[in-house]
Amino acid sequence: LGRQFIYEQELVSTNRSALELAEAGCPAGLIVVAETQSGGRGRMTRSWFSPPGRNLYFSFVLRPSIEPAMVPQLALLAALSLRRALLEQCPSWPLKCKWPNDLWADGRKISGILCEMNCRDMKTSHVVVGIGVNVNVSREELPPELRDSAGSLCQLAGRALPRADILAAILNHFESDYNQWLADGGLTAFLDEWRSASVLDNCAVKVEQNGQLHQGVARGITPEGFLRLEQADGSIRTI
Ligand code: BTN
């Protein structure tokens, strides 16, 4: 992972560029990094705040031979790799994974993960995993509407942090986790870690599924990575 590397000052979105390169036949493991994104994107058509020179915005191309239904597991896997890589910087950071694709600390979002894929004949042709990490953005630099919900690593550390070291640590962790995941054919080896890393367990949550809002209490994830939602009547809905 990352042996082929594209680094740009500005891109619309590293996910968009990586998807185009994947479509054009680039090798698995290629990574695209940008200093800033003019159209950084998140899940559910949200945008991703991408100021220059502060944070990490990168995407890599994978070509796993898996069923498309397994692809969302990669976001959970990446969240765990990311958390472990960041805890290497500072083991006492209160980093928690939030199903399905975020990293939080002290009630603020630090990082988001966006997996996008392309399928052919019901097989996954390629997956792009895009990660944005708020590293050195200060509270004042965040747009007012994000100030209460977003945080950054430098706010936790009280000092600026080396982005290249953090990127290298994330890629190293993800590469070995990904190989394990491929070998096991799923998340089995990571379920205990998810339990200790998850911020949602036993919390009341509202989740949207196919345009429908479901309320309940989060009760962990299934081995396939679905959220287990305990509903008012005690039944479990998987999302
Ligand atoms: C989310 O929280 O909804 C996911 C956010 C993902 C943002 C990253 S930044 C790098 C990559 N390029 C993008 O356009 N999006 C992802």
TrEMBL record:
<dbReference type="Pfam" id="PF02237">
    <property type="entry name" value="BPL_C"/>
</dbReference>
<keyword id="KW-0547">Nucleotide-binding</keyword>
<protein>
    <recommendedName>
        <fullName>biotin--[biotin carboxyl-carrier protein] ligase</fullName>
        <ecNumber>6.3.4.15</ecNumber>
    </recommendedName>
</protein>
<dbReference type="InterPro" id="IPR004408">
    <property type="entry name" value="Biotin_CoA_COase_ligase"/>
</dbReference>
<dbReference type="GO" id="GO:0005737">
    <property type="term" value="C:cytoplasm"/>
</dbReference>
<dbReference type="InterPro" id="IPR008988">
    <property type="entry name" value="Transcriptional_repressor_C"/>
</dbReference>
<dbReference type="InterPro" id="IPR003142">
    <property type="entry name" value="BPL_C"/>
</dbReference>
<dbReference type="InterPro" id="IPR045864">
    <property type="entry name" value="aa-tRNA-synth_II/BPL/LPL"/>
</dbReference>
<feature type="domain" description="BPL/LPL catalytic">
    <location>
        <begin position="1"/>
        <end position="182"/>
    </location>
</feature>
<dbReference type="GO" id="GO:0005524">
    <property type="term" value="F:ATP binding"/>
</dbReference>
<dbReference type="Pfam" id="PF03099">
    <property type="entry name" value="BPL_LplA_LipB"/>
</dbReference>
<keyword id="KW-0436">Ligase</keyword>
<keyword id="KW-0092">Biotin</keyword>
<keyword id="KW-0067">ATP-binding</keyword>
<dbReference type="GO" id="GO:0004077">
    <property type="term" value="F:biotin--[biotin carboxyl-carrier protein] ligase activity"/>
</dbReference>
<dbReference type="InterPro" id="IPR004143">
    <property type="entry name" value="BPL_LPL_catalytic"/>
</dbReference>
